[in-house]
Amino acid sequence: MTTAAAPAATFNPADPHCWTARGRPIEQAETLAAIWQAWPDLPPGASPDARMARLKARVTAMKPFNDAIAAENERERRARNFAFMDGKAARGEIADHDLAILKGRDLHGYHWNEAVTYAWGWYGAHSGSPYGPSLDARRTPEQLAAYDRGFADGGGNRDDLFDAARRGNLAALRSDNRRSDDAATIPARPLPSSWPQPGDHARPTRWSRRLIILADSDAGTAGDVLAQILARPGAAEAAIVVLGPDAGFVSGDDYAWTLPDAAPRPLTRERAEALIADTAQGEALRRLIGPRDIDDVLVALQGEHLRVLDAFAAVLPLCRSMERTRHTALLQRGHLRIWLDRGHDGAGNIGAGHIRWGKAIHGLTGKLGEFTARYAGPVAASQGRSGTRRGHLIRIEVAGGLPAMGYATSSGLPLDPEIVITNKAHLRREMAVALRAFAGATRLMHAAA
């Protein structure tokens, strides 16, 4: 036997409890209820004109109430902003521009918007910039007047023809004429968390001069990444470091042979703090890197793992390419593939540089230097320069759309400008490999003639 559901509570705007149940403070609830008591809904039989007149009367009665709420929100916003600036000043972290906001409040009693405009004028004059208030329609006359006062307090004189030049010369002699956040000093050894994501603009590097640091956290991710790395020719010569919550920094070669059967346990904040406080971890990382010369570093760490490595950033080598994987797991895998593609075993020459990709809807193309890789579509069984081939055809062309004939590797092996691949999903990767092979190739003299 089923029972009927209880009827929903009736919405009665004339009852203060109706508004308090919806999150209104008691003062606002009582005001709203009083308005609805004074201007209740008309009976169903009332005329449309009477209903519209009642609605307008109720809206007019609620306008002071809504204006009071907006004014209170504005007061809270100003108070929060000024409190934030006061906190920065108390900690000694405030810049000149932000300090001018507090000057506008303390010296002239400005509210937040006027104080900010005052600071723009003050800092513009202080830093040697010409007079230039914003003429945005949203700027009130009070804000424009605050800018003028700030410009004058900062040393500006609109009546002086050479005012901007004079202030510019004075600003050049000061050491505090720039905002601290605009002139932030770049650390001599940037933290790995600030490194950029991998790109194809960096030149290829021998595996023996590469370093990659992995995490063991994401349930087999370290094992998968190790397998991808070790599958590349010559990658065994790279320095591979794995960071885990138990032993900290360990060799990737040893970790590959001792992969745990169960998913690695996560690195908690408490365990991360313990690893950071352990000075032996820095020595372990230094020992794993060893005396080798490193030209290319990739950090495949996120979260607490990355925070631990930041604490030992002084151990990492300074080199030409320092990058880390970022954003979502899918993008991180893409960044890893880009970095892996830059490695080579030194058996031949590889062209460097950024590949410019064309739109796939018009037929995918890639350009590197004088070479263009173009997808020519599927090939039939009888098509191809080297006999019977099936799959998808890639053509390497030079200027004028001519096939790139007469190119050979450093070992003298001729390069075929027509390449057939069996899996179209690998089209972009195969085109990039072909472009770099041709860009690093040598054109034979008889072909050049």
Strand content: 5-15%
Largest sheet: 5 strands, mixed
- What pattern of helices and strands is seen along the backbone? HHHHHHHEEHEEHHHEHEHEEEEEEEHEH
| Mean pLDDT across residues | 79
Oligomer: single chain
Helix content: 40-55%
How many strands appear in the DSSP assignment? 14
Return Rg in Å: 34 Å
Going across the major beta sheet, what is the strand order?
4-3-2-5-6
Residue runs with pLDDT of under 50 for 5 or more positions:
1-8, 179-186
How would you classify the helix and strand content by structural class?
alpha/beta
The total of helices stands at 15
Shape: extended
Distance between the termini: 96 Å
Write up what this structure looks like.
With 449 residues, the chain is of the alpha/beta class. Helices cover 42% and strands 13% of the residues. The chain is built from 15 helices and 14 strands. It has helices at 16-20, 26-38, 48-91, 96-108, 112-126, 141-153, 163-173, 221-230, 252-257, 269-277, 279-289, 303-311, 329-341, 427-439, 445-448; strands spanning 205-206, 210-215, 239-244, 248-251, 296-300, 321-324, 343-344, 356-357, 365-368, 371-379, 391-397, 407-408, 418-421, 442-443. The strands form four sheets. A five-stranded mixed β-sheet has the order 4-3-2-5-6, with helices on both faces. Helix 3 packs across helix 4 (96-108) and helix 10 (269-277) packs parallel to helix 12 (303-311). The longest helix is centred in the first third of the chain and has 44 residues, at 48-91. The chain is extended and about 95 Å long. 26% of the residues are buried. Mean pLDDT is 79; it is low at 1-8 and 179-186.
